[in-house]
């Protein structure tokens, strides 16, 4: 959990993803269980209700059949169909053709007792077909008391079951996430310890190289010192990037009026040895003295990443042009370029489209994070084998 | 066109009535049980129009004790009727008229 917070989006994302998948599966499973039990309970309650009403309906049917018998015998004297306020009825002949009905509901003759559209139906077959009625259907309105009671029971059951499932799920989730949290925590501690242990020796190397009076050195030794300088600065950059990524938003910004021109000159000087190693020419076009109210370290990190990328992905004997205007900084290189479809993905963490150079793919993510914090706009345009132009404007 | 249809229908009904009156009512008038009672006896057993008509025609063609709907005492007293002299078409028309006259459909209130 510690690392997931301190390392920014990715670990939180993976944790969230696991959490989301587990929760979705668990909720789905809970819904299936609740639905299945609810359905079975509902069916059972409905059948119970129907069985309770069956005897009453059978009484009504018996009464109706008696009335039909009477009407059948006296059909030449009366044709008034028997009616009762407690129920409605219908009679069908053996070909299932309706003879007469006092009910407005649709009737099925293939079932004996059923509930349809809020009406309970009982289908009886009398011993003799009075008035030709083979099927005598007696129907009565369902008072829906059982339905309300059943729904109430289902809701209470569902709430209780969901609560129990939620409690079990909560503990299960903790149980499942524990190994992942432990691994992340271990990784977190490892990164922090490693970066911390790296800082002191790397800073010592860089500081001591800077203190060497290079004019006194012979050419052979100067070359060796330069190589050490490049190596140390590369490690220093990685360290700083990792520190920034690890600490992330915890670094409190100390904004100040920053002389952009001065900072860029400093950073170019810092990267000179790296650029020289690749025979890359750095040209600076400073239009005006520009001041920004910004955190020096963070803005320096942003510039470092842009210059570092421009060197890293440049060709031998390539060029880097840095222009500073009142409202923007433009870093343009003559490097390998980036395909159009990949430009939008550049600011994603761990995104790398060229594996020939080292790196973690975190540089532009750091640039994007810093730019977002200080409301700076990033614009990237690139052409394959021609170069990339990064504009930071404010 | 409507007139023609109505006239044809009346003609058919007239023919059916004629066969029914001449061949069925004529004999049944002599019996103490009115002809409609036989209809309701059949209805009680056969229920649907098709089954009932089929049973009546079969009985008229082959009148035997085993297929009668009347009680044993009735048969003992009045015996089984004579075999019909009507052909199939006439039988169908007479029974259709009989059904239309005494059917329950459309009469219940």
Structure at a glance:
The complex is a heterodimer of chains A (394) and B (109). Chain A is an alpha+beta fold.
The residue fraction in helices of chain A comes out at 40-55%
Report mean pLDDT of chain B, rounded to a whole number. Answer: 83
Q: How many structural domains does the protein architecture of chain A include?
A: 2
> Uncertain runs of chain B with pLDDT below 50, 5 residues or more?
none
| Counted beta strands of chain B | 0
Class derived from helix and strand content of chain B: mainly alpha
Secondary structural class of chain A = alpha+beta
Determine the fraction of residues in helical runs of chain B and give it as a percent range: 55-70%
Number of distinct helices of chain B: 5
- Give the distance, in angstroms, between the N- and C-terminal Cα atoms of chain B: 34 Å
State the end-to-end CA separation of chain A: 35 Å
Quaternary state reads: heterodimer
**Cα shape of chain A:** rod-shaped
Low-confidence stretches of chain A: 1-11
The chain pair with the largest interface is:
A-B, 20 and 17 residues
Q: What's the order of the H and E elements of chain B? A: HHHHH
Integer-rounded radius of gyration of chain B = 15 Å
> Given the structure, what is the number of helices of chain A?
8
Largest sheet entry of chain B: none
């Amino acid at each position: 959990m510690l690392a997931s917070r301190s390392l920014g989006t990715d670990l939180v994302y993976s944790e969230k993803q696991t959490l989301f998948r587990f929760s979705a599966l668990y909720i789905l499973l809970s819904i299936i269980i609740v639905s299945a039990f609810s359905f079975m309970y509902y069916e059972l309650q409905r059948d119970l209700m129907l069985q309770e009403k069956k005897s009453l309906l059978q009484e009504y049917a018996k009464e109706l059949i008696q009335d039909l018998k009477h009407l059948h015998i006296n059909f030449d004297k009366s044709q008034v169909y028997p009616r009762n306020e407690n129920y409605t009825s219908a009679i069908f002949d053996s070909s299932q053709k309706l003879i007469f009905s006092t009910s407005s509901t649709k009737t099925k003759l293939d079932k004996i007792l059923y509930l349809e559209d809020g009406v309970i139906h009982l289908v009886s077959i009398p011993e003799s077909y009075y008035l030709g009625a083979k099927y005598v259907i007696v129907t009565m309105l369902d008072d829906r008391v059982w339905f309300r009671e059943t729904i109430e029971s289902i809701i209470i059951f569902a709430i209780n079951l969901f609560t129990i499932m939620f409690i079990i799920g909560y503990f299960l989730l903790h149980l499942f996430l524990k190994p992942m949290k432990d691994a992340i925590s271990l990784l977190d501690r490892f990164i922090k310890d490693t970066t911390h242990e790296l800082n002191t020796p790397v800073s010592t190397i860089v500081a001591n190289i800077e203190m060497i009076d290079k004019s006194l050195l012979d050419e052979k030794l100067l070359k060796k010192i330069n190589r050490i300088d490049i190596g140390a600065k590369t490690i220093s950059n990685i360290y700083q990037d990792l520190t920034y990524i690890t600490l992330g938003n915890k670094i409190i910004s100390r904004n100040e009026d920053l002389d952009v021109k001065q900072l860029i000159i400093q950073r170019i000087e810092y990267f000179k040895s790296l650029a020289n190693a690749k025979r890359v020419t750095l040209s600076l076009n400073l239009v005006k003295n520009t001041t920004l109210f910004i955190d020096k370290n963070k803005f320096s990190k942003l510039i470092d990443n842009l210059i570092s990328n421009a060197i890293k992905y440049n060709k031998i004997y390539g060029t880097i042009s840095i222009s500073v205007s009142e409202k923007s900084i433009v870093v343009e290189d003559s490097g390998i370029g980036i395909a159009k479809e990949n430009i939008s993905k550049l600011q994603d963490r761990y995104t790398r489209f060229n594996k020939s150079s080292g790196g973690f793919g975190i540089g532009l993510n750091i640039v994007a994070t810093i730019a977002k914090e200080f409301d700076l706009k990033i614009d990237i345009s690139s052409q394959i084998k021609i170069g990339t132009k990064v504009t930071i404007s404010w | 066109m409507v007139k023609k249809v109505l006239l044809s229908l009346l003609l058919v009904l007239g023919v059916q009535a004629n066969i029914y009156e001449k061949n069925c009512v004529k004999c049944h008038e002599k019996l103490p049980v009115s002809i409609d009672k036989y209809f309701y006896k059949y209805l009680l057993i056969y229920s649907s129009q098709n089954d009932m008509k089929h049973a009546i025609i079969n009985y008229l063609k082959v009148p035997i004790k085993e297929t009668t709907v009347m009680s044993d005492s009735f048969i003992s007293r009045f015996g089984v009727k004579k075999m019909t002299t009507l052909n199939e078409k006439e039988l169908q028309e007479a029974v259709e008229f009989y059904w239309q006259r005494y059917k329950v459909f459309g009469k219940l209130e």
